[in-house]
Amino acid sequence: MARPRKSEDAIAATREALILKAQEVIGAEGLGALTARRLAAEAGCAVGSIYTHFPNLDAVIRQASLREFEGLRRALETRRASARTEGLAPEATLLALAEAYLRFAQTRGRNWSAIFEHRPADAPPEWFHEARAAPFRIVEEVLEDLAGPEAAPQGARALWAALHGVESLASAGHLALISAPGAEELARDLVQGYISGLRARTPAPAG
């Protein structure tokens, strides 16, 4: 007699449990602590069950990373909406988004760091690229008012690279080696310096 097939709800619940447990392990101990055996033990299932729901462990980690990008997108969207309510100018909005990024990254800790430590064997699918790009688009929209639509995409990534460097050094306890100010103050200086550079490159209106 054939075994009854699991319902779609049960399959989805198992997948969700595996992703959440992966996030828990990574958040508590880092990406290196997550193995298929450890994940199965935490989720209360056999190792083979993981591969029933995911092609490999990289796919589980990628789903966990997806949650982080979605969380960052929500955090930036919320701050952007409040900046609009407050009537902030683009420069102040950009500073507010930078601070929101730092708070998110610091709150997520190892879960956020794991995204950049993960080295999957296969190339990311299109949906992952889309999730990764979504937070940048929020910053790009603000930068368009300062740098124009052509320069905004590169500007958003340049700012993120600088902020990510500050946050990574701060998280590792190494920021004091290169800078006396804390992460928030240094990030503010970086963003303000970028804005000053934009203003210097923008021609003055003819009068």
Report the span from N to C terminus. 87 Å
Structural class based on helices, strands and sheet pairing: mainly alpha
Largest sheet properties: none
Beta strand count: 0
Global Rg: 21 Å
List descriptors.
75% helix; mainly alpha; 207 residues
Q: What's the gist of this structure?
A:
The chain has 207 residues and is mainly alpha-helical.
Please provide a written account of the structure.
This protein has 207 residues and is mostly helical. Helices cover 75% and strands 0% of the residues. It has helices spanning 8-29, 36-43, 47-53, 57-86, 90-108, 110-117, 126-147, 152-171, 183-201. α4 runs antiparallel to α5 (90-108) and α5 runs antiparallel to α7.
Write the layout of secondary structure elements.
Elements: H1 8-29, H2 36-43, H3 47-53, H4 57-86, H5 90-108, H6 110-117, H7 126-147, H8 152-171, H9 183-201
Helix pairs in contact: 1-2, 1-4, 2-3, 4-5, 4-6, 4-7, 5-7, 5-8, 5-9, 7-8, 8-9
